[in-house]
Amino acid sequence: MTTALRRLVVNPLILKDALARVRTWRAPAVIALYLGLLGVFAWEAFSTQLVGPQRPFGFAEVGSNVFTALALVQLALVCLVAPGVAAGAISGERERQTLDVLLVSCVPSFSIVWGKLVASVAFVLLLILSALPLFATVFLFGGVDGGQFVETQVLTVTTALAVAAVSLFLSALFRRTLAATVVAYGLTFAVTAASWYVGMMLLSSGHIRASQALLFANPIQAMLTVLHGPAAFGPRFGGAIAVVSGPGQAFAVMPAPAAAAGPAFQLWQMTVGIELALVVLGVAGTVLLLRERRVLGRRPD
Amino acid sequence: MIEVQGLHKRYGGRVALDQVDFAVPEGEIFGFLGPNGAGKTTTIRILATLTPPDGGTATIGGVRVDRQPDAVRRLMGYMPDFFGVYDHLSVVEYLDFYASCYDVPAARRRRVAAELLELVDLADRGGDEVDSLSRGMKQRLCLARALVHEPRVLLLDEPASGLDPRARLEMQELIRELRRMGKTILISSHIVPEVEELCTWVGVIDAGRIVEIGPKADVLGRAAGRRRLRVELAGADDARAAEARRRVAAWPGVLAVEVGELGLEAQVEAGLAAHELLRDLVQAGFDVNAFAPVDAGLSDVFMRLTERDA
What we know:
Chain A is mainly α. Helix content of chain A is 70%, strand content 2%.
């Protein structure tokens, strides 16, 4: 194994950060809270659609709707957790006054950033893995196939990676963890829930082009099209926009405009691609900040 | 082993280093003295590859710090003035982590950690959490951390800052032991007695400029060239004290005279015949209680060279 490859896999920061993270009371607390919230949502979704004098949906529809609710809640929780663990990764080292010592070691800047990213996302992956049994209950009802399940999980993981990479960049850019965390949460909210909501508003008021532009590569939209809509999107990629019409109701899907010539990518694939590009940009930006010592640290006397 | 030539660094409009030149021979303990803000930390950070210089060159073991930082990092160990430790890691895990950061093979890391903990007298604390150690122990652990890759040069920025007297002495003994092991050590400090006791070479920096440098004996020898005399007078009122001050100041070879609580303190040339000055004062009717040279230590050198900051 070459040194570069070895540093990707056997990175001292991954083990150190993982050890330090799991030894705090916060790790089990976050896992318990995460699973608890997902469990409550699953219970609520099942009970809304299965219990009562009139059962409006068939089993497959119940399975599909509950899976959609769980996938969206999981995406939301991942977007809540990822900035929290990644936005303090570099600024925390600076605040703890351990960054200089790390920078004079033989670990290259890329390995420091890669180790921090993997350590942050590893915790999110642990959350996602721990929720798999909950997702498995949906398969008792049908309505979701294996491909959809894999696509939603891939989308969730790449979203976590992108959010963590951008948060990591902010962590190197800002001196304080608090500032990095606030900006990271603000950005995450803006490009996920807020942009999706505004996109829906634009769609309902007939501004289809503006809506498509805003919802392009939105992970919520990508998740919805994986589960409920035609998988392509936009004039070039020939797609549709899924609209949630209300809790517990089916998703209305806009008819897709005619596809233009050229390769057609599914929206979730586009989203994953753009999120991975964001990861590359986030990592590259963080590496540059570390290399150039443009971190806004203290000046020596 | 360490060579700095024409080093220049500017932060905005402020010049932090202005043509700094010095060299530290192999195996010496170099005390880098200067008041706060003089440029000590900037120099050390440039040597540690943490801050790029605006001009000049700095080499460690013949390797330019700005051109081959990776090679320099393998040659030197760095201990910053302020440093933190990781929570929830044991002392052994802490050293193991840094050893892996320096590519020390996994099979050797435990042995390296054990040897270093023995060296810094923390062998019985290996399983303790780093955060539970006292300040002095953390300082020694940080020094052990700087040694995990067996560097030839150590850059220690204020290594004894914040330590109690006992911990400070232990740290000094540890640094002497490291010199016996062949390390070249650069210590930045503004604590003059610490440098005087510990270092074999001394450099004084003030306002970004080197104002004195050399082997400690030479620096002290040069200071002795402008020695000080203390003259204590018995029963002298202000008028008599002023008269004595005028008389001493007029004596050939006397450079300056100050009036203190105990009497007069005169800065004189090395060749001044002190006994003649004493005889003159006695013959002039002054009751001289004491007439003695003041030892010219590193503190005098430091105060004289940096007096505009006082």
